[in-house]
Write a structure and sequence with these properties.
The protein contains seven helices and nine strands, in the order ααββαβααβββαβαββ. With 189 residues, the protein is of the alpha+beta class. α4 runs antiparallel to α5. The radius of gyration is 17 Å and the shape is globular. The relative contact order is 0.13. The N terminus is likely disordered.
């Protein structure tokens, strides 16, 4: 997950930590918590589906799964099928990406459904939201647009001409850790 945990603003962590005081998986207190709506399989085999905040250690080590993970699994399936891979490698890569997704907190927050870009057989790294209109213009003009796959940008993504979105957090920026390609998503409210 690289810089992901560093990108979460202190304010966001404070708000989460004010609302939740312990990890919903291991019940530790006094640890940074990350938003994660999902479930964990307990050691006795039972499922606890009341998970809304998890610590870094649990995200990396516990058998967790996002609520409605099938939505992003469909995107993963479409992506791996678009690659020229053997059937065995396609199935293997799909499982690796699903595991990677289920170890990622709900950051960025997607208004419509999870849709992190995929590149070089990996989930790209979330690099942040535009902080101002100059950032927004740079991202929308120079990054590839992703919407359940690489898509042609709509003319309405020319934010200089058509105006900025209601909230800059509707735009999320990503970068491939392998080739350096940059992507953005736009999920309006």
């Amino acid at each position: 997950m690289g810089k992901l945990f560093e990108l979460i603003s202190d304010d966001a962590l404070k708000k989460l930590d004010e609302y939740y005081t312990e990890c919903h998986v291991c019940e530790k207190t006094n640890v940074d918590l990350y938003p994660y709506q999902g479930q964990v399989t307990l050691e006795n085999g039972k499922i606890d589906d009341d998970i809304y905040a998890a610590c870094h250690e649990c995200l990396q080590s516990k058998p967790m799964m996002h609520t409605c993970s099938f939505l992003y699994e469909e995107i993963i399936e479409k992506y791996v099928r678009s690659l020229t891979l053997s059937d065995t490698r396609t199935a293997e890569l799909k499982m690796i990406l699903i595991e990677q997704y289920n170890r990622t907190p709900d950051i960025p927050f997607f208004m419509q459904k999870p849709d992190m870009p995929l590149c070089c057989e990996n989930i790209t790294e979330f690099t942040g939201y535009p902080q101002n209109n100059d950032d927004l213009y740079n991202i929308s003009e120079n990054y590839r647009y992703w919407e359940e796959g690489v898509k042609e940008k709509s003319k309405y993504h020319d934010f200089k001409t058509y105006g900025s979105p209601e909230n800059l957090r509707e735009i999320a920026a990503f970068q491939c850790l392998h080739c350096g390609e940059k992507y953005f998503t736009f999920q309006f409210s």
